[in-house]
Amino acid sequence: MKYKAVISDLDGTLLNSEHKISDYTKTVIKSIIDSGVKFFIATGRHHTDVLAIKKILDLDSIMITSNGARVHDEENKEILARDLPLSISREIIDLKLDEEIYVNLYAGDHWYTEKEAQWTEAFHTESGFTYTLANFEDLKNTKITKFFYLHEDPKVMEKLEKKINGLYPDQLNVTMSLPVCLEVMAKDVSKGTAIVEVLKLEDIKIEETIAFGDGLNDLEMLELVGKGFIMQNGSQTLKETLPHLEIIGDNTNDGVAKKLEEIFEIKK
């Protein structure tokens, strides 16, 4: 199969443990782009955050962000937006939670949180994109793209996942991007649904694509494409859910770039 498109997650996949892209990975991606293959980013990150990474890679392609809730074209103009229903986002803001959980949300061009979380800055060294402190009560009439919750104990996140799914059965997409990060989007939002729309625009068949991911928010994407790859450092639950997919090297050792070299027969 001659693949026409590559789709990659960022954190835990294309980015290394320092949340950066290695020079080696940059070189490999440039080689496949120069050969005529499309390279798309599909991430849970905010579109403003991803612009810096897109620039680093010199990408001229559509960008899928906020787990598929936003899609921007080659000129970074928004072409798809799917926000949470206002009635539900208002209720989610009022949820009583463990005080140690960091609650965050994306709305428009902004990332909001109610309390300082300096340790999150390590994820955004390439872009400098950061949060704005806000009182969420003031955002109840604002269209919200997604909520995401952070806590160092995965069991706390699992408990919260069950709580939200129980309150809103079949009304939301609730998923773990990391064991310590729970994300909440509108029901039909996922990287997979966004990719279907993007490939239509690009006139590329699904079977002509490959994708790389590490978290449960990559599940729909990896199931959908012609061939999906899971990072060695990826979620164990993801590996067990998709046992037929190949597990490749980890993100710290350029696992994506090495697999791309192999698939596209790039000479070193």
List keywords for this structure.
268 residues, six-stranded mixed beta sheet, globular, 2 domains, alpha/beta, Hypothetical Protein, Haloacid Dehalogenase-like Hydrolase, Chain: A, domain 2, 23% strand, Rossmann fold, 14 strands
Summarize the structure.
The chain has 268 residues and is α/β, with parallel strands linked by helices. The protein contains nine helices and 14 strands.
Structure write-up:
31% of the residues lie in helices and 23% in strands. The protein has an 8-stranded mixed beta sheet, sandwiched between helices. Strands 8-7-6-9-11-10 form a 6-stranded mixed beta sheet, covered by helices on one side. It has 2 domains: 5-81 and 189-263, Rossmann fold; 86-186, Hypothetical Protein, Haloacid Dehalogenase-like Hydrolase, Chain: A, domain 2. By secondary structure, it is α/β, with parallel strands linked by helices. The chain is globular. Helix 8 links the parallel strand 13 (227-231) and strand 14. It has 9 helices and 14 strands. The mean pLDDT is 94. One of its GO terms (molecular function) is hydrolase activity. Its cofactor is Mg(2+). This is Cof-type HAD-IIB family hydrolase. Keywords: Hydrolase, Magnesium, Metal-binding. It comes from Psychrilyobacter piezotolerans.
